[in-house]
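Human: I'm a chemist; would you kindly supply sequence and C-alpha cells for a protein?

Assistant:
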Amino acid sequence: MEDSKGTLIVAETGSDIPAELVSAYNINIVPMHVAMGNETLDDGKFPIQKIYDYYKRTKRVPTTSATNPEEYKNMFEKLHRLFPEKQILHLCYSAVTTATYQNSLIGSEDMDYVTHMDTKGVSLAQAAVVLKIARFLEKKPFSPMEELIAVTQNCISRLKFSFLPGSLEYLRAGGRVSNAAYLGASILGIKPLIEIIDGKLICTKKYRGKIQRVSLQLIEDAICSNNYEKDELYLVYSEGLDKEVMDNAVTAVKKLGYPNVQWIKTGGVITCHSGPGAFGIGGFSAEQS
C-alpha cells in the first residue's frame, strides 16, 4: 500500500548538484562551508575563483566544514512547517569525511519525520544517488520510506566514482601528500587516481602524462571496469579544466555507448581539495540480470 504522505529530499551543497536539477526535482539543499583566513562563507555563495586567488596569495588551501546542527534543524523544521504531512529523506554527504551525518542527527533530535542515509559519496557520487532517488520519486511519489531506503541502499552499493585531482599543489598544501611525494610526482608527471570506496577517498592508481591523454585513459579504464548503466553517466570537473579536454571526454564516452552525459561542476568544498582542472567519471554499475 502506498504512503499518501510523500517524501522530501535534503542534501548538502557538497553534492554539487547543478542548480537547474535542484529546481527541477525540488531538492532541498543545506550549506557546507569554506573558510579563508577569518572569513567563513557558505559553499555555493561565492565565485570559485576566490579560492584560487586565496591560495595564490597565501599558499594555503581554504579549510572546509560541515553543515552545522542548527542549519539542519532549521531546514527540517521549515520543511515540516510547510509540508506537515510529508516525510523527509536526508541523503547525506559521506559520513567518514566530515561531521555532516553526526550533525544532522543532532539537528533532527525528536523529529520522527526525518530519515537519514549516508550516501558514502561526495560531489558526483552523492549527486548521482540523490538524483536517482529524485527520479524514482518522480515516477512513484508516494513510495513508503522502507522502499526508498532499499532503493537507496542498492544505488549506493552500485555507485562507482573516480577522479584525477587538478593540482597536486592543493593536495600538498592541504597536507594530503608529503613534499617529497609532491616533488617526485611533479617531476614524473604523475596524476593520482582517487576513488570513493565505502565513503573514503582512496588513491588506487597512478597515471602518468598530461590531462588531455590521461582523462581519456581514465574514461576507458572506468567504463571497462565498472560496466556503467547506459542511461546515465556523469562527468565531473573543477573550474580551470580546459574546454578541449571536456569536449574530448564527451566524444569519448559517446563513442563507448553512453549518449546521456551529465556534467557536474565542483563547488567550493570539493574544489578546495581537488584544485583547478580536476576531472572525473562516475555512474552506477549495471545490475546483474
Q: What stands out?
A: The first helix runs from residue 19 to 24. Residues 73 and 109 are 8 Å apart (CA to CA). Confidence is low (pLDDT under 50) at residues 174-185.
